[in-house]
Amino acid sequence: MQGVTHRAGGVTACLAGYSLLVYSGSPLVAAAPVASLACLYPFAVWGATASDLDHAPGGLWDELKPIGQRSGQSLPSQDVVSRAISHVLHATKPLRGVFPKGSRAAQLVSVLDCKHRSWQTHSELPLAVILYFLSKLDPTTGNLSSALTQLILMGIGFGLVAHLILDLLTPEGLPFATGLFINKFILRKHVLPERIKIIPHVPPTQKGKPGFFSTGGTWETKIVFNALHAINIVLLIVTVAKLAGFALPSLVV
Asked: Are 246 and 237 in contact, with CB atoms under 8 Å apart?
């Protein structure tokens, strides 16, 4: 999916997640409903594109250049934190081809090597990490820094879920990190699936144009993107009504 579609998905995830927090009576939003939404929103939108920080950022010397002259312009965000994350993800890039092919070291580098849509950013693993840190925080303490940390992690988590769901709706699907690691380091053979796919590949009918399910194709631009906008309008109306104090049916939140 394109960045604009992922951002729309981030808005959907933010508004839906916020509604769930309100409906569940979470103390994180009960005390300051507007402020909590304002905190969730930017991190959800950022989180919805953060998985694509696995695009190569270029060399470290690029960070000394003006933004418009840097490599890695395909990165969804050009801020310092985003580019730093991208550099960390590609830390093993210099090790490509260093070790003998088939050796344990080469196999390890192959697994750790981050490429676009690899397990480091597009699997269940980053979401599990966020859930782990959230499980260590208590939403009822009333501590401001703890509440902000939880809202930030939730916002990023909402955006990440949106990104994974949208990329699952493409022919490439998503990597399955659990299956990959079990196959590589426990079973030593391919037994479990290492990728989850539910959408078929449909080749383009015209040369130079994307296929129906491809990035920028009819499926994304005409169906998924418009559906997200329709959902966002409904969720926005519900959210504004709730913040304004209107009584809504419990099923609608």
From this structure: no
- Which two structure tokens, joined as six digits, stand for 152? 């930030």
Question: CA 40, CA 32: separation in Å to the nearest integer?
Answer: 12
Distances (CA, A) of 221 to 1, 31, 167: 9, 39, 14
pTM, 2 dp = 0.89
Q: Which distant-in-sequence residues (6+ apart) come within 8 Å of 140 by Cβ?
A: 27
Question: Sign of the CA dihedral 181, 183, 188, 190?
Answer: negative
Task: Tell me which of 20-24, 47-51, 70-74 is least confident.
Answer: 70-74
Tokens of 109: 């580098």
Which amino acid type is present at position 45? Answer: V
Residue 72 falls in which region: left (phi positive, over 0), alpha (psi -120 to 50) or beta: left
Q: How many residues does the chain have?
A: 253
When pLDDT is averaged across residues 171-194 and rounded to a whole number, the result is 92
**Spatial CA neighbour of 150 closest among 232, 47, 58, 36:** 36
- Strand-pair partners of 196: 174
